[in-house]
Amino acid sequence: MKESTKNNTTLGHVAALITIFLWGTTFISTKFLLEYISPLEILVFRFILGWLVLLIMAPKLLKTANWKEELLFVGAGLSGVTLYFLLENIALTYTLASNVGVIVAISPFFTALLASIFLKEETLRLSYFIGFLISLVGICILSFGSGDISFSSLGDILAILASVCWGFYSILTKKISNLGYANILTTRRIFTYGILFMVVAMPFLGFNPVLTQYAHPVVWSNLLFLGIGASAFCFVSWNYAVKVVGAVKTSVYIYLVPVVTVTFSVLILHEPLTWQMVIGIILAIIGLLISERK
Question: Alpha carbon of 34 to those of 103, 219, 252: distances in Å?
């Protein structure tokens, strides 16, 4: 039994790493898309595509026991799908991607604070905060090491709010995982409410897709990646990691998002790799290891 639990925990860590690897590339993918379509359009079509993939994978209907359980899914869809990604995407239109990357990477701190309040089993150790500070220094060096620092109050505030929303999402998904439902079914239910809230936001944020834009290879290829890979697959794998590893320990992997983003920026966009970036990557990884230390 203990061996099985250990294997599940190891698989949870692997799932978190794979998820972060894919999520770290979404900043680049989203930046490409924002040149053609709006933030809300990206979200709507991305998660509708992800929802359809999950429906094909598991067409069974999820039946919750009561309205209290259903409210957990409503909250998760609102916080982790609609608000988080909408705030993040809009923030990218007002401030630098590096700014958003740094601020979003501190979401584990908000997760830890919320978990200490709402999840009694999630205990915080001194090593967590030491690792957080080391990773934060590394992330700042990684993002601002070039000296090209530009702050936009609105964009940065939106990114902070996105981080808080992800903290709430992490807590809610941990509670949902304790209900015992199948992971794919719970993820699809979360997507359902996320999409419904996006529909509500349409009249206020302007949803006027130009269909000819979607014929462009950059648009449909990146939407396929975001919908199938970064949404359908990653949310299932992330929710599994939260279930077996815990909300706080899983959220620590978010420290690596800027590391992945910079790495792919060098490989795909052919941006220069500086010694500041190397130091930042090393510190971010060291901070992760310290935070995960028992």
Answer: 20, 9, 28
